[in-house]
Amino acid sequence: MTPDTNRRWLLASRPTGEPTREDFELEESDVSEPGPGEVLVRTRYLSVDPYMRGRMRDADSYADPWGIGEPMRARCVGEVVDSEYDGLETGDVVAGNLYWAEYATVDGDRVERVEVGDLPVSTALSVLGMPGRTAYVGTVDVGRVEPGDTVVVSAAAGAVGSVAGQIARIAGGRVVGITGADEKADWLTDELGFDAAVNYRTAGDLSAAVAEACPRGVDLYFENVGGEVSDAVTDHLTDYSRIAVCGKIALYNQEDGDVPRGPRRLHQRTRTRVEGFIVSDHAHRAEHITDRLRRWVSEEEVRYRETVTEGIESAPEAFLGLFEGTNVGKQLVRVA
Ligand code: NDP
Question: How far does the centroid of ligand 1 lie from the alpha carbon of residue 226, in Å?
């Protein structure tokens, strides 16, 4: 049966600097019944991700900007509650690029069945989803991690970083995580098998703290943060080291003119390879990588956490928390 009302978040304004709750508007509307070829999906979980900050800005990026008054989009997991699409039935659990919304009526080919085996469906948005694949691509394909490498991961207790560090450990690396809270640092070393963790908020001289944690220098830096964290790691890169540039969250709330220019502090690192990547460019390998992650999770070689806020109302708070570090592991919103 089709429900009556839907609630969804719209982009109300383009933030300058840190976004606030006022940049989002919760709209109530009728639920549209699916037409031919469409499905109606009830969202169970929606994912909030740092790249969404870029889409709130009217600037050139690999992801198109969202328009003011348009619905916020998100990768979601949900349940088909009505289907006019051959191949999907009521009750099927699906994932797709949908909205910050309770319901979405979309073409059936915009969603696919969720394949997570015995794991919770939310893992399709976390360790078995885009963040897990990003961790794999950055560590293995771009970072080309080797046994014996010293690997530093920033935002190490987040969705991508926590998995990247564990993959580097499995590959035989010595893994150091950088994070912003002692509890997160303890999680990395006590539960995820990181060899050391540095709290960038309390370390004082961060470059010295990285040197202490990495006595043989840094062979691979999995870059999630940018700014001063990045500078502190760059100081200790070895000859023929690599930087896998995954993201630079510390810069996402800065306006263009304020973002520091150029790769900083690489002046004595002429043999370092710096390579950025976007996980969607590796979509052809998604199935292979997901299978690998599923096996590691089932063997408890890779552990994961999800931080979940409750209700569609909480989506902006969950998103804003990414920039405060309120999440451990993947930040999700449970909608139904
Ligand atoms: P996380 O789960 O890691 O959440 C963000 C974390 O970043 C926070 O928990 C916080 O942790 C840390 N952080 C926030 N602001 C700062 C700051 N100013 N300085 C230092 N640390 C900060 O998010 P994701 O795992 O989803 O994303 C991690 C990175 O990967 C982002 O840069 C993102 O853009 C990028 N990414 C890139 C992809 C690609 O295809 N290239 C795909 C997916 C993500 P703490 O408490 O430790 O500070």
Answer: 10
- Structural domain that includes position 122: 5-126+305-334
- Residue 45 in any domain: the answer is yes
CATH value at residue 191: 3.40.50.720
CA–CA distance, 320 with 5 (Å, rounded to integer):
26
Reduced to 3 states (helix: H, G, I; strand: E, B; else coil), residue 25 is strand
Q: How far is the CA of 259 from the centre of ligand 1 (A)?
A: 17
Q: Tell the residue nearest (CA) to atom 47 of ligand 1.
A: 179
Does 146 share its domain with 222? yes
Q: What is the mean pLDDT of the chain?
A: 96
Contact 156, 188 (CB under 8 A): yes
pLDDT of residue 1: 60
Cβ atoms < 10 Å from Cβ of 191: 11
**Predicted local distance difference test score (pLDDT) of residue 258:** 82
Q: Is the pLDDT of residue 4 over 90?
A: no
Distance (Å, rounded) from C-alpha 302 to C-alpha 133? 13
Domain co-membership, 229 together with 258: yes
H/E stretch holding 229: helix 227-234
What are the tens digits of pLDDT across the range 26-66? 999 999 999 999 999 999 999 999 999 999 998 877 778 99
